[in-house]
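RECORD TYPE: protein structure
NAME: Dihydroorotase
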Amino acid sequence: MRPQLLANAELIDPASGRRERGAVLIRDGAIADIAWGTASPAAPEGAETVDCAGHWLLPGLIDMRAFIGEPGAEHRETLRTASRAAAAGGVTTLLCMPNTNPPIDDPAIVDFVKRRARDTAIVNVHPAAALTKGIAGEEMTEIGLLSEAGALAFSDGVKSVRNARVMRRALTYARDFDALVMHHTEDADLVGDGVMNEGELSSRLGLMGIPREAETIVLERDLRLVRMTGGRYHAALITQPQSIELIERAKAEGLPVTCGASINHLVLNENDIGDYRSFFKLSPPLRHEDDRLALAEALDAGIIDVVVSDHNPQDVETKRLPFAEAADGAIGLETLLAGGLRLVNGGSVRLERLLHALTVRPAELLGLPAGRLTAGAPADLIIVDPDVAYILDRASLWSRCKNTPFEAARLEGRVLATYVAGQLVYQYASA
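PREDICTED:
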C-alpha cells in the first residue's frame, strides 16, 4: 500500500486526552507521523491524501464482548458478517466469546478461529477461550496451552461458574500465566425462570423477575476468591449500584479487578421493554432508570473500565416470540459508538472517558498495542462525523441478524470511514 495522509482532521487521542486539529501519516500499516496543529507531516512522494473535512479522527474501537456464531451457528453470524458490522460501527478489534459449537476450549479451535478470521474478517478478531471444558463449569481448561495458541482472555460467556472450587482453581492457574478471567456474574439458581428486572414493572407486566442479588452474590464470591488467589479478574457486565460499590472497594484494596458495562445497560432501561418488546430481553436484564444513571456516573468516574457492545445475534425463530419465551441478546457492534455519544450529548459522561473505555483501557487489559493515536501504533483508525443525526433503519445493518434494540431510534454520530492496518475497510455511502 502506498502511504496515506489523513489531513484536515480533528485529532482525538484517548490515551493522552489531547484534542486538536492535525493530520496523520500512515505507512506500512502503522502510524508513521502525527502533526498536531496547523502543520502537516511531510508526505512522501506518491502518498494519497485524504481530506477529513474537519471530522474526528481517532483510534478504532476495541470491543471485548461479542458473540459470533462461527463455528456451529453461522445462520446467526459469521466472522465475515460480524467484521463488516464492526467496521461500520468503528470497531477495529473485537474479542469473540467462546460460546460456539464446539466451544473454544481447545487450542485447535483457537487456531481455527484465528485462521478463519484472517481469511474472512476485515477487522482484527481475537478469540476468548472457555474457562471450563465444554463451558460446563465442572473442569477448567488448559489455560497455558490456550494462551500459547492465542486466546487473549478466558470466559464461559453467558454462563457463570457455579462451583467455587473450580473458580478458585481457574483464578490460580490464570495468575500463573497472567491470563485475564472474564466472568458473567449471574447466579443461575436465583435467575430461575426470571426474564426481566425484578420490581414493580415486572409485576405489572406479569413477568417473572430477576433480583439484583443474582449479580452481586456471584460478584462478591468472585472478589473473595481474587483475594485468595491474586488472579486477574474482569466482571464482564455489571448493571447496578451494589456491584459498583463492590468493584470500587476491591480496587481500593489494590486487587487486580476490572469491570465492564454494555452500551445497552448504559443507555436503555426496563421501561424500554414497553409492550413486551423481545429485542430488549437481555442477560443480565435491563434495570431501573436509577441503576442506569448510576452506571453512567461510574463510567464517568472511571470505576467502570470498559464499555462493550455485548453483540449477540438472534434469528427470527428465537427472537420473534412472546417475551418470556424469546432468547436473550441484542446486536450492538454498529450502534456501540452512536449509543455512547448519547451519553456524551446528554451530559452524563465526558467524551474522553467514553473513548478511553472504548479504546485505551480494553487494549491494556488484552495486551494489545492498539487504542492510541501515537507514532508506531497500528493504523487502526476511524473518521467520525459527530453531528450527523439519523433514524436507525435495521434493514441497513450489516449484521446477519437484525435484533437491535435501537430500531427506529434517533442517533447522532456516524462512522464515515474505518481503517485497519492502514487499509480502508469501510466507507459510508449515503443513499
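COMMENT: The chain has a mean pLDDT of 96.
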